[in-house]
Amino acid sequence: MCPQPTSDFETAVLQWIAKSSGDSALQEQLAGALVVDREYTVVGCYSNLLVPMDSPASTAAYSNRGPLFGPSFMSKAVEHGGGTLLWFEAGRANCLEIFAYGDYFPADHAELGEFKLLAGA
Asked: Which of 5, 20, 39, 75 has the greatest number of C-beta atoms within 10 Å?
């Protein structure tokens, strides 16, 4: 599969993580992140990321053992809201995990409609 841009929801989550991390290497990685593929689990999604190879590797503690907790979210499409985690390999973000606190997460992120990001996953 050919890498594609992140969805509006993924973009908002990645921007939130980049801003709140204070990690300039991670900020550079996430600014250029693309999605290689998405694995849906009915209650969430694993968005496998490709970050620019010329962006620096993060040296923060989470970058080698992860995950880095992202924001929680609320959406009318996900009854109890959900959370997010960013996973790493060798200092590079490689997977955004999105999960619902209930029993459903839409396969198409556009179905989330308006959403709100909240501190703490």
From this structure: 75
Q: How far is CA 92 from CA 31, 53, 71, 96, in A?
A: 13, 9, 19, 12
The per-residue pLDDT for range 56-74, each reduced to its tens digit, is: 999 999 998 789 999 999 9
**Residue 57 burial (10 A CB sphere; 0-12, 13-18, 19+):** middle
Buried-exposed string 18-49: b where 16+ CB fall within 10 A, e elsewhere: beebebebbbbbbeebebeebeeeeebbbbbb
pLDDT tens column, 68-93: 999 999 999 999 999 999 999 999 99
Instruction: Kindly report the pTM of this predicted structure.
Output: 0.95
Which tokens hold the place of 52?
């620019």
